[in-house]
Amino acid sequence: MKRKAKRRTADIAYDAIEAMISTLQLAPGTLVVEGEIAESTGLGRTPVREALLRMISIGLIDQQPRRGLLVSNINLADYLDLLQTRRALEALLACAATRRATSAQRREILRCAETMVAAAAHEHLDDYMKADQELDNVVHAASQNRSAVKAVVPLVVQCRRFWYAYQHEGDIQEGARAHMALAHAIAGGDEAAAVVAANRLLDYLEQFARRVIDR
After folding, report:
1. Above 90 in pLDDT, residue 204?
2. 73 DSSP 8-state letter
3. Is 59 left (phi over 0), alpha (psi -120 to 50) or beta?
4. Residue 167 and residue 118: Cα distance in Å, rounded?
5. Over the stretch 31-49, which tens digit does the pLDDT of each residue have?
6. How far apart are alpha carbons 152 and 148 in whole angstroms?
7. Confidence bin at 142 (pLDDT 50/70/90)
8. What's the average model confidence in pLDDT over 6-21?
9. Architecture label for domain 76-214
């Protein structure tokens, strides 16, 4: 029982730190001090340490000799490669979710996408990103493909951080429309349309990234 409680606390710590990094409360290059994170989250050092190790493994935090732990920088060239990898995984997850989602999950997928559209219409980026994360979670659960989910989640986190860093270059209304097309395809059980929509979403993310790079 103790091991389960420890894992849950580590997951809470991970989610809290990831939110701080992806929303730029901890900006790229920021020194990450274990004790300060434990104090700010109200969690113990052990779960915080475990969460930080996970973040090192997926590239959100760099461990540098004599400097300690630093929030990793956003590398624009690497980001385009990341999007290409995510494209393949998102198509796979969309197909799996289309086949395997329950009726309740299909309804929830549509609800999340509708929330994104409403948030985008009012330019509420935080609400938009929260609904986006909820949509990802439902699609991932519906896919029942744990290996693909494990591979894509770190990429999604990097994309979320990129959004917060360069949001002035993006069009969240177009993003919401792309997510809605994907949600309708999955909810409707149309696997071919889900692949098209997943690629449309990644086209949008890539165009957004290229605007940042070319500015």
Report:
1. yes
2. P
3. left
4. 17
5. 999 999 999 888 889 999 9
6. 6
7. very high
8. 83
9. Up-down Bundle (1.20)
Q: Look up tokens 């340490």; give the residue.
A: 49
Could you report the per-residue pLDDT of 160-171, keeping only the tens digit for each? 999 888 887 778
Q: Quote the CA–CA distance of 55 and 72 in Å, as a whole number.
A: 10
User: Predicted confidence band at 76 (pLDDT cuts at 50, 70, 90)?
Assistant: confident
pTM value? 0.87
Structure-token pair, residue 62:
């760099």
For tokens 């559209």, the residue is 117
Hey, what are 95's tokens?
Answer: 């197909």
Residue 15, CB-side half-sphere exposure with 13 Å CA sphere:
8
Q: Which residues contact 39 (CB under 8 A, 6 or more apart)?
A: none
Give kind and range of the element (H or E) at residue 178. helix 172-187
Using alpha carbons, list the distances in angstroms from residue 93 to 47, 66, 77, 106.
30, 41, 25, 14
- SS3 state at 69: strand
CATH 3.20.20.80 fits 2-71, yes or no: no
The closest alpha carbon to 117, from 169, 184, 190, belongs to 184
Q: Where are the domains of the chain?
A: 2-71, 76-214
CB distance 32 to 69 below 8 Å = yes
pLDDT at 5: 42
User: What are the φ and ψ backbone dihedral angles of 31, each rounded to 5 degrees?
Assistant: -70, 130
Count of all residues that appear for the chain in the document? 215
